[in-house]
# Entry
Amino acid sequence: MKREEAFWHFTNEIYEPLKHQMLFALEAHFQNHKCSLAKTFRNSLEQVLGKVMLMQQEGTKQSLGYISYSMLRTELANGRATYLVEALDKRWLMDLHSCRDTYNADWAFRYLDEWETELSKHAKKYGGRIGLDDIQRMKLRAAIHIHQYIIALARFSITEAWLDEIQFAHEIQLEDVFELRVGEYWDQSEVVFKRDVRAKDSSVMKDWLEEKKPYDYIHEVFRGIDGSQGNYKGIRLQYADLNESSFINSVFTKGNLIGSRWNKACLIEADFSGCLIQEARFEKANLRGASFRDAVAVPGIYQSERWERPGFQPVSFAGADLTGATFQDAYLQDADFTGAILQGADFIGAAIEGACFKGAVLDGTRFSLGMHPVAQDLTSFG
# Structure
């Protein structure tokens, strides 16, 4: 067998199957331990903010514009899962007084190390055609998949309420626009949390959103604006912050709203039909008469055999007013309706396996035959 043939066979028969097996094992670990992992991640962030506080008190650090977590491939090559944590002012990488710390991501990258060991064992069967350098390159190439879990953890860990509490406790000065980013050192990075307290003109924001640009609104902050009566059909608002906003009688049909936040928003008779709402949060929102017909909020990983990305978290409607809302034929597995008002809501044809209705008001709520959550702790039944 020539090297090219051996490499092709190894990649398809060994590398790929073992890679997906590794990533599914990491997925299970992440989902089962995400709360404790989030606590450790917040501790690392609080640690660097403590250093920022001292620097700002000494006058050597301006208001904070960014905190970045950077994967270091040289560290990975040497067997260390170390992320560089940097606190930077609004000049970002040009900040001459950066504040640095580290974050240990061994909980995730140990799966990569174990996978490398397993690959090396199989490589011996190829008569030297697959060398240790090949395995090392495969490891570094697969590291980007493990890195996705650091991004997912950062996004899961940080909330505005937590940041406000820490900022107040440490008296940290932040820029009006502050971002937490996760990426590779001096390379691309992804926003996982954004805070923007600048005043916004609702009419300008509404006009901009109605342009429905493909990538401009992802991770953006539209908190507190009034975009009512708007046509946002097909819009992409992944991980955007729309908390405390007003979008009464607006149309979002077929939109990508994955990870978007609508807590305490006024969304009366808004139309979210056919939207992707995995990881979205509508907690304490006013959704009276809103439609989520055919909406998709399937948590976890879609495919059981092929890994593509970390699994989604369940959608949350905890504490929301969903009086008269429509969820016909929606996919809402594991959705959180804790304490929600669902009087007269329609779940006919909806998939609600694993959904939590604890403390929900369900007077007149309609469910498909056999799907009424009678085993839950409910305040009332339809």
